[in-house]
Structures are given as C-alpha cells and as structure tokens.
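User: Before I run my own analysis I want an independent prediction to cross-check against. Here's the chain; please return only the structure tokens and, at the end, one sentence I can use as a sanity check.
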Amino acid sequence: MTVARLKSISAFDGAQFASTEGVAIRELDGMGIATVLARKGQSSALAARLRGRYGMELPNGPKLTNANGITLLGQGPGTWLALREGGGNEFALSLRDAIGGLASVADQSDGLAVVQVSGARVREALCKLFAVDLDARAFQVGDVAATPAGHVGATLWRVEDAQGCASFGIAVHRSFAASFRDHLVEAAR
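Assistant: Structure tokens:
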C-alpha cells in the first residue's frame, strides 16, 4: 500500500517556541508515531519479533527502550507508543508489516505532537505542569509517565542529558497542542 506523503504541518500553528534562560524547547515535527497493542497472549512472541527485527527489547512497565532509530515507550500493560524521528506516516505501516498479527498498530503521526525540553531549569519549569517527581533520583533516564500536564493529557519521558542538563520528551494530542504550548512557555518563564 502506498501512502501519500503530505507536507508536515506544525502542531503548534507554526509558532516558534521561544527558549528562555535555562529552558530550551524544540518541536520534533515529522515524527513517525504509532500505538502498539499486543494481542491477547502474544506479548512474548511480540518481544521476540522486535528483538529479531530491530534488536530491541520490549519495555516492561513505564520505561523506554530504543534501538535502530526506534523508541518504544511503555504506557500500560501490553501497550506502547513507538516513535521514529522523520518516520512520518510510513513508520506505522512498516511497523505493522514487521509485527504482523502479534499486535495492533495504529498510526498516531498526525494525532500527536512531540517536543523535547531541556536545560538547567527544565525540572523547575516542568514541575509547574506535571504532578510527577522529576528529581533525577526519582525520574531517571528511561522513565516514562502518562499523566496530565495542567489540563492536557500527556506522555512524558526522560532521555539522555543534553549538554549536561536533563532532557525530556513530551507528547500531547495535536488538538491540545496550542494550549499546551502556552502553558509550557509560561512555566518556562
């Protein structure tokens, strides 16, 4: 099946994030995003397939794992969010083909918006939005949380530090992206 590649449109209405002192915000536009739901009794087979095809382990619990340009975020029992930078809508199709009947794969590339937030004051800013302990000892690299950001549902994950500062990824539904942007920029001020 051929997928028409449309020009990527910013989920944030083209507004640029103004990074503030101590907090850098960057939209990750054009991401390939898919929800992966293991079929009943197929989690072990799915884990083996992902290990064989991509050399990656299936995260157990609210953790992330990545290999070969793909990141899997554990969101709940038998549920993951799969990400690939620059993957667009084709990513979900290729993942569905690779997984076969072991899981349901739903394209979320046009449904979710993703930002990366980092900097010396990033935890201070994010604590204004998330009711999650973001201390480095409590929320470590590779941890994931599905939680509200203010009044907007979000998935938050911690990635490797950038330039010696904590770095986080955040995914929100595109329909709430403008509101989330306003809250995030205000929290970073």
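Sanity check: The chain has a mean pLDDT of 89.
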